[in-house]
Amino acid sequence: MIVTYEEITQKGVGLQNEDAIITLPKANLYGVLDGVSSLVPYLNSKKETGGFIAANLIRDYFESIADLGSLKDHMVKVNDLLREQMVLANIDLEKKEELWGAALSIVRVQDDGVEFIQTGDCMILAVYDNEEVRPLTWRQVSHLEAPAFAKWQEGITKGLKSQKELHETVIDTIRKNRYQSNTDGGYGVLNGEKNAVRFFEYGKVNLTCLKHIILLTDGMFLPINIVPEQSSYWSFVAHRILNKGIKLYTQELVELEESDSECIDHIRFKKSDDKTAIVISFQSAL
């Protein structure tokens, strides 16, 4: 099996790119990480946000391990490391709005399949020889974002015209959602909480007819209202990425966001989120 990959990571409107990327072809390990900053402003002495620190701590950990073993075991260890870092930074671990964290999708290609692990709203899409697209993951926050998006739409209907004003209408919902992290009925995120390990999604798919694996942070998702109603959302996204290539796909998505800078036509919490993707391709060795 010959494995090749393409990658991209690009900063959005934030201070830093809080996404990070893992590409270790020798270990056949690949991952995308989406740092989640605290809702309470935090910068360390290097002017790094909590989301930046978390995503890079996870990347550095995976890039430093000699024996890969089980992805789940490593996630447990790196979750503990993150908690230690927050304790050193005097973060109150009882206050969820102060926690740093990361959503992530990580895969390891093995001789007999692809092992995967995920938490948060990063996605893993498997694409087969017959063009079928199989999402291996689910956006764990989508059911909590829906009420905030509905409130955002309400604000637009009432005549609010700026992203800043609209964001004010949903900040309480966003804050309330933080307290749903790693709880039943809530969502998973790697943020140092002991319960985080209960919400990892993981498994393995075999390589039969597998053509591509696509890893995405949420900044790479297309606005839902530009996907034709008759199309499966993830199938449309996957084929658009494969047909255009990740660089052109990303460029066109940024241009779309620029043309709707106040988040009116395509509802989202900020004009442009950090964007990270990896496309892994498989080819049988002759």
CA radius of gyration is 19 Å
End-to-end gap: 9 Å
Coarse shape: globular
Give the number of DSSP strands. 10
Please tell me the overall pLDDT: 96
Q: How big a fraction of the residues is strand?
A: 15-25%
**Helix count, DSSP H or I runs of 4 or more residues:** 6
* Strand order in the largest sheet: 1-10-9-6-7
Number of domains: 1
Report the sheet with the most strands, covering strand number, pairing sense and barrel closure: 5 strands, antiparallel
Backbone structural class? alpha+beta
What ranges have pLDDT less than 50 throughout 5 or more consecutive residues?
A: none
Query: Mind telling me the CATH class?
Result: Alpha Beta
How is the CATH topology named? Phosphatase 2c, domain 1
Order of helices and strands: EEEHHEEEEHHEEHHE
CATH architecture title: 4-Layer Sandwich
> What's the CATH superfamily, by name?
PPM-type phosphatase domain
Helix percent reads 25-40%
Describe what you observe in this structure:
By secondary structure, the protein is an alpha+beta fold. It has one domain: Phosphatase 2c, domain 1 (4-Layer Sandwich). The chain is 31% helix and 24% strand. It contains 6 helices and 10 strands, in the order E-E-E-H-H-E-E-E-E-H-H-E-E-H-H-E. The protein has a 5-stranded antiparallel sheet, covered by helices on one side. A 5-stranded antiparallel sheet has the order 2-3-4-5-8, with helices on one face. Strand 2 (19-24) and strand 3 (29-36) form a beta hairpin. The termini are close together. 37% of the residues are buried.
